[in-house]
């Protein structure tokens, strides 16, 4: 059984896909970008907005960041890795206040949709 998840608190899809799909206890969140923030060139603000978009989608599905088990990060410039990593990491803490980090990969790509600098997708359960 599949359930499409949608919230107005995150950007509407810019193509033929859903913000997220929930199936058999798993939530598959499509890659999120920060279109408005990307134009500023502030990678920290852009990454924060992407993570907030993900948080809104998780909330719409009855989940939160602690439910994320896998993340995929796509960046235009791997020189921004440290900044992206710091912002991304700040969204994860366990029930006991200790850091919790899902499995993930980070990949440098030639170009991203809408010429953003970072895109992140996640799987949660």
Describe the structure.
The chain has a single domain, classed as RutC-like (60s Ribosomal Protein L30, Chain: A, 2-Layer Sandwich). It has 3 helices and 6 strands; from the N terminus they run E-E-E-H-H-E-H-E-E. The longest helix is centred in the middle third of the chain and has 18 residues. A 6-stranded mixed β-sheet has the order 1-2-3-6-4-5, covered by helices on one side. The mean pLDDT is 94. The relative contact order is 0.24. The chain is of the alpha+beta class and 125 residues long. Helix content is 25%, strand content 29%. It starts with a strand and ends with a strand. Helix 2 runs parallel beside helix 3. InterPro entries: RidA (IPR006056), RutC-like_sf (IPR035959), YjgF/YER057c/UK114 (IPR006175). Belongs to the RutC family. This is RidA family protein.
CATH fold-level name: 60s Ribosomal Protein L30, Chain: A
Q: Record the strand order, biggest sheet.
A: 1-2-3-6-4-5
Q: Spans with pLDDT under 50 lasting ≥5 residues? A: none
Distance between the termini: 15 Å
**If you average the pLDDT, what whole number results?**
94
What's the gyration radius in Å?
14 Å
Q: Can you count the helices? A: 3
The CATH C-level class name: Alpha Beta
Architecture per CATH nomenclature, i.e. the level-2 architecture = 2-Layer Sandwich
Give the SSE string. EEEHHEHEE
**Major sheet description:** 6 strands, mixed
Q: By CATH's scheme, which homologous superfamily applies?
A: RutC-like
Instruction: Report the strand count.
Output: 6
Indicate the overall shape: globular
| Range of helix content | 10-25%
